[in-house]
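Form 12-C: Joint structure prediction
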Amino acid sequence: MSKSVKKVVLAYSGGLDTSIILKWLQTTYSCEVVTFTADLGQGEELEPARQKALLLGIKPENIFIEDLREEFVRDYVFPMFRANAQYEGVYLLGTSIARPLIAKKQIEIAEKTGADAVCHGATGKGNDQVRFELGYYALKPDVTIIAPWREWDLRSREALIKFAEEHQIPIAKDKRGEAPFSVDANLLHCSSEGKVLEDPAVEVPDYVYSRTVNPEDAPDTPTVVTIDFEKGDAVAIDGVKMSPATLLAKLNELGRINGIGRLDLVENRFVGMKSRGMYETPGGTILLPAHRAIESITLDRGAAHLKDEIMPRYAELIYNGFWFSPEREMLQALIDKSQEAVTGSVRLKLYKGGVHVIGRESPYSLYSQDLVTFEEGAVAYDHRDAAGFIKLNALRLRTLGSRRRKLGV
Amino acid sequence: MSKSVKKVVLAYSGGLDTSIILKWLQTTYSCEVVTFTADLGQGEELEPARQKALLLGIKPENIFIEDLREEFVRDYVFPMFRANAQYEGVYLLGTSIARPLIAKKQIEIAEKTGADAVCHGATGKGNDQVRFELGYYALKPDVTIIAPWREWDLRSREALIKFAEEHQIPIAKDKRGEAPFSVDANLLHCSSEGKVLEDPAVEVPDYVYSRTVNPEDAPDTPTVVTIDFEKGDAVAIDGVKMSPATLLAKLNELGRINGIGRLDLVENRFVGMKSRGMYETPGGTILLPAHRAIESITLDRGAAHLKDEIMPRYAELIYNGFWFSPEREMLQALIDKSQEAVTGSVRLKLYKGGVHVIGRESPYSLYSQDLVTFEEGAVAYDHRDAAGFIKLNALRLRTLGSRRRKLGV
Amino acid sequence: MSKSVKKVVLAYSGGLDTSIILKWLQTTYSCEVVTFTADLGQGEELEPARQKALLLGIKPENIFIEDLREEFVRDYVFPMFRANAQYEGVYLLGTSIARPLIAKKQIEIAEKTGADAVCHGATGKGNDQVRFELGYYALKPDVTIIAPWREWDLRSREALIKFAEEHQIPIAKDKRGEAPFSVDANLLHCSSEGKVLEDPAVEVPDYVYSRTVNPEDAPDTPTVVTIDFEKGDAVAIDGVKMSPATLLAKLNELGRINGIGRLDLVENRFVGMKSRGMYETPGGTILLPAHRAIESITLDRGAAHLKDEIMPRYAELIYNGFWFSPEREMLQALIDKSQEAVTGSVRLKLYKGGVHVIGRESPYSLYSQDLVTFEEGAVAYDHRDAAGFIKLNALRLRTLGSRRRKLGV
Amino acid sequence: MSKSVKKVVLAYSGGLDTSIILKWLQTTYSCEVVTFTADLGQGEELEPARQKALLLGIKPENIFIEDLREEFVRDYVFPMFRANAQYEGVYLLGTSIARPLIAKKQIEIAEKTGADAVCHGATGKGNDQVRFELGYYALKPDVTIIAPWREWDLRSREALIKFAEEHQIPIAKDKRGEAPFSVDANLLHCSSEGKVLEDPAVEVPDYVYSRTVNPEDAPDTPTVVTIDFEKGDAVAIDGVKMSPATLLAKLNELGRINGIGRLDLVENRFVGMKSRGMYETPGGTILLPAHRAIESITLDRGAAHLKDEIMPRYAELIYNGFWFSPEREMLQALIDKSQEAVTGSVRLKLYKGGVHVIGRESPYSLYSQDLVTFEEGAVAYDHRDAAGFIKLNALRLRTLGSRRRKLGV
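Section 2 - Result
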């Protein structure tokens, strides 16, 4: 806390916690505070945040509010889905992918307002602090970073509430006690962790879910939906063209009513421990198999397998907060290069938590019925070629086999 | 066909096609035929195959029938599931994993009976010919391989039927016409492809499915099931210890009634073209997320991520038929090394096609509630460490950022 | 040989073997032959090839001769060196990288002349047939490929000579007997294999080398040379700007006199067997460590390690002949993305077979003396950060250690 | 420094710096100090360290001195060389591989003596602190670690000397001033860095080298040497069986006189910055190509390529200090699995800094002259197989080519 700071850009939600941080920054660092409030589709109105900031003494010109939904989906979510990214085999990286955008915007505002510092409200045990700060440092290497949860001595809920009361910060009734779990939300997903979710042997209580109905309560009739892709990105639903954010919101709605996208997971944090989280990613959970399905007919095997092999690394980079790193950008160049012909339509059946691909077609399809049918194709495929193919592939195995027979190794 | 062969071991199902092959071998190569019929859980009785072989003139001592179900699951399916293997992100390799075992048994019988050749009934356009033959060659490098579908001139259904009639091979009524699709089955899965499935834009007709009910017809109440693992392998269901094959059969039944494990896929064959298949893997589709879930609390991050990174390669090797290759064995050594503490229980909810992990516990759990809770853990975790962790991880990004600011690259 | 062919583009060197092929094509296929002779820096004059082609009855308008040296180095050799590609840890891919360019030119000429076929003179046991033909097929999927060495029955040197005599093909005296080894050469390298080189236990005889002096005969005084790079490619030697081919030729000369670039190797061919080859790559053997050295100060760790990890795959693709494949192009996109700031100078000492980097500098250097010196850097590095960095990196290992102490796994 | 410590095991060389640390531990922590001095082949006598420890007040029973040379080479160096490990393409990891063994021994002594802490003399900017501490934590998760260079305020050479004088620590004359570079040495290598080496554009002065003669001063006649391998490890030189450490020492001597193993490198440290080092690894620089050469005839292509692909990751793990991690052990299992038949002899020519493989043979050789010679092999290879092999490998490229021709993508 010995850092000297003149002006700091705070990622400000308008909620109690970031309001406490706001006030703590003013009192601890005696510095000017700039607030940044973004709409990433978390489902909260932004204007109350402006009012609250004003109330807490922020100058009007220091209040920045921005609707980032389209940029978020177009430049972050979609590029990531081109890679079919899943962390640890299942997690769609809903929280991870939002952090770099917020960091980037904070740095842009810092440059604009001449601020020398930035501040976030992430705790000292999670991944989000890493994601924010790697973004800050990459984009503004000399920035000062303030991470209140690692610095202050407000170590309990009581201490926080006491601080708020002492500084006339309004406290909503339901915020006095500890929340039974903590939540992060944006247009891609909603995550919950902590408290009631901490024992990984115990089922997630139903009240934790907010974005999806229970599959058991979903309609008894499946929803059939068609998604169109262009160069790897979804562009239309049931033939209706939509902007990226509109499209994802629509998929979220389809997922919500069909109970799609719940994930109960124990994951490995970058900071070294395991944690248990619950994720709801309704639209993303539809989008992933749809994207894989359009790739299945438009992407060559060599391209597809290379993508699959580098995917875990790519997902790990995003999870760990290295969006603004050369290696993520290099992998993105590789991925994007593959998507030129990933164009076409996929039909899916959504039913009580399940997403089932039932058809795919494309003007660029590499699937050739001629080649596959048992009647021998006119052009390219001759049964007898297979013998030579197998024999040369087997050659080294035969040499090994001969050695084993003769020498036992 | 110019090969000179004295005795050949035929993979013989007892069905019309392999009976035609049997007779064709006798007439074309004038050689002694040894039949091998295996129970891999495909769901057919084996004794009729013996009767048919006798009828077609095979000597009793040349008829081999074996129940391989336990060996199949214990030594092939389970090792593969330790790797969480999925080809092209989704396919559980049900056909691929059975081929090496059949090849191995044929070679063993060839050694025992002094046969110089082996024969399979796979077509010349698929992957199975490769899988069989790579296995044969690896285990008996000097073997002669006969692949009738690549050699004979029976190029239509009519020609086959005509050949059968000429050679007094009994023909079941429903085998006269062409089957609307072709099927492969074993204890892990049932696959269908060809004919009515060839257009990937058209939904799989319901009558193609044989192992699972339609999710829409599954019970309205979820089934909750517990699977126990020891060293990476499933050993008990709902607390009841079972042999590997018994356990997989039980999972198949649970999957069947809950509509679990249907997969409609366009995949990339090793022989170079895309094909569309329909897979039913009810038990495997339950087993995979269960195994991932027990790993999620017992496997370290470094181990888990390394496994995820090599998995696509491992799956590709199995798909392509390289089970008996040094590289598959090296990867298996790596995988098996990781499974020592993958022991514990996973609870799952099965519901209308969906498999949902709802709890996991293990005496070897690496999940530590102390470390995760927001109250600072007693021992290992200090919030302030995170600052140093982030700063050193950021150092190279800051250096890059400085360069970009100064020099624009 | 049942293929019907109207016009074929032959990769024609003007030597005895391809002259025999030329005549064999005319007699066997009764087709028009177009010859293509390229200068890739193999060190032979091209005009004699024209004379010989005319002599063998090729129409003047069907004789194509092209100097490809600049295109070869600029578009094939340099992109490959950006990746630091080495097959099996050591081989600089000198033969492999030339084949796609020749294939591409043959196809271009086929399109121009309306030819329906192409022909190469590679044998049926090597990799080159694969490299040529994968290139042909990728660029002109419906082309007919003629590979005489796999088709004809000229199975001995005597048979070839006899065929040549029967068809009035001039035979140089030293070509009557079998060559003691076979040679391939271009501006990047010269390779030798076969006959006297076949026993991998026996040292390569000195007379096999043609591009380099024996290190023992090289000057007793080292040569110091500076290579300048721009965006990953070498552009100048000792401050003198040069075109790609000129530069590589200059490096070859420097390598030659200093005995640099000899490699005696047993390698694994794509077609399944091991072979022993001798390679001389004087310029390339200087270029590789020079490129690594300029990367060492201009490339970030994340970028550098990612490049190192994908390199073996990239090298394998080129070796196997998949230059014109989506996966090679995707990897190239990744590699090229990393080279934007790979600009600067490297100083090397060349001495009796050795290449020793002795200095490197760059306007884009990421090497910061401030950060490294033991005096604590002003800005970014604080010793105390290391403690947190280590502790969080150790966290999972400590958790594992605790489990091992308690439970033994 | 607020840690409470009762007994600490110090990695003690007997030199001035670790003697200062010893005294600083006593005065700062008022704790009992146990010294551990190991012979890893650094080339210094150990008994003076005992005398100095006694002089500084260490109880005789708290002084541990051990000759670890054989264990070092057998259990650390050789397993690493099985992998052909090179960090960033060139560095043989000489420093990195010694740290885990020292850490392991310190922890063993801590257990034996009931110590609750360990201490090392590595600085706060390097990799060695990480390597020591990850080892400590992995093996004894609750250990307290003291890293004086990160903790004390002795920030200059003057301060250190003053502290030594105040505490009656004997100071050798040449230790009063700052060393022109710092050195680490063991049986595998000697590394130098800092001060005079800091500018990467400036050549390493000749006086920095201590283990090798300048190539220009090496004999004018090459040395030819044969190395025998068994299961991947070197076991004999010129037919004389030797223990691991004896063999490495012998290779070091051969390397020394022939000027082999100098490396001038800018590398990327795990802690985030680049550093320039000079390494001398005479024996290792001979061993690596020798091991690759014996692998070239005894290892199958699939095994060899898999090893090459995972090698950079394996090397990075060792460099970063993760020897005692599950992922390193998993990769080791994979590597060791491959070495069963890596047995045979390699002949090399050593000449003025160069190592040239000139022959290799093995009873387990997979190199088959029959397969390679142009005369068609009796058994396994048929030229015509190559056509089928190529056509099926080309199939997907032809499909892509057709699409590109028709549709432009």
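Section 3 - Comments
Confidence is low (pLDDT under 50) at residues 374-378 of chain A. The CA atoms of residues 198 and 276 of chain A lie 6 Å apart.
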